[in-house]
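hiii so my PI (J.) wants the whole complex modelled not just the main chain, which honestly fair. so below is everything: two entries, each one labled with what it is. i double checked the lines twice but i was tired so who knows lol
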Amino acid sequence: MIEAIVEAIRLAVTKIPEDTFSAIRKAYAEEEDETARFNLGNIIKAIDLGFADRVPVCQDTGTITFFVEAGVESPYLGGLRDLLIEATRRATGEIPLRPNAVDVLTGKNSGDNTGRNVPLIHWEPVPGDRIRIAVLPKGGGSENCSALAMLTPAEGWEGLKRFVVEHVKACGGKPCPPVILGIGVGGGADYAPLLAKKALLRKVGERNPNDKIAKIEEELLTAVNGTGIGPMGMGGRTTALDVRIEVAHRHPASFPVGLVVQCWANRRAFIEIKPDGRVDVWQ
Amino acid sequence: MAVRLKTPLSGDDILNLNAGDVVHLSGVIYTARDSAHSRILKLVGKGELPFDLNGAVIYHCGPVVRKTSNGYGILSAGPTTSARMNRYLDKILSLGVRGIIGKGGMNREPFKDRAVYFSFTGGAGSLAAKSVKRVVDVLWLEELGIPEAVWVLEVEDFPLLVAIDANGSSLYGR
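here's the output for the full assembly
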């Protein structure tokens, strides 16, 4: 089982999901600006090389984050936390990953991507006997551009659009555009960013099932691409590959908006642990 | 046509470059991120910096490294976000550094008349690693860890864009 988790981490860091790769190829085909084509061309070469050589596409293999849908009747639930930590440790040595876990006081790197509260594990108990895990290794450059806005209900959705576009402009080339924007609305100051991060697990072009929200996703995608920031912030047509919104009900006084910016290296993989111990890994 | 340059860079190498030019860089370069910058400036102040940065190129990069039987191999080595190092930029350039490689851009004023900012595509680490011929040395590995240590790398034909030139032109915010 531990080998399967290591393999999922390897898949996530060495291979960019097909939906993302085809969005990048499309951006390259449509781009006219020479500088933007230099960058998109490098991105395409890097993706091909990473998968062929089984080496990390981006050197920032990120903070390893697991989203666990934990079937409460699974016999593997009790030992899962230790398994995920051990798999992270092993993946760091075997793939290898860059060690990215640093003590906040001493600045000392643990050397194996584990430490206090890392890898990050988000637990959600669900009915049934299966465990489904999403692996999201997310880099620091894009994570540094994440933000929370506690808007007033009067500002609402129009305020959200303004906030998102202004924020993307302010970030410029820092988060490695073309980016994918995950947006969480509602819940609270803790929950909106978590929803935003979970939105990154969707496929490119997979819209929110609510038509009105789906329309706002598309409007925002057009608005962000209209900024002209372009690949790596050096101008061009494609600033974002996708925008996704997830929602929770909100307090009547609050309109929390979490924004999580993901770089083009939109890495992810999934694991399912069946009740008999068999494990599926896919992207 | 791409310009071919070799480190250490001279003043003339730099002053002839324009934003938008492609440069194929060869020679030795030094990786440095937040902690390494702070340490370089501290040691220079004491006259104890163990390498010479005159004409040097600094790469904002924390690579993925594999230990091999005869040293280290670089597997993935794209640039990190340079803007974090803006606070060190003027002092670092005053040590004679002629080029910075990174992504996302930096303050442009400090580069004027003395250095250029080269950009490589962020996230394209597997591609950048193909330009690294060998690890010449590594400094401060124990104290700073793999991402923050100074990796002294020999590169060959590393394809870079001149993103901020020494005349004050920049590709950012076009």
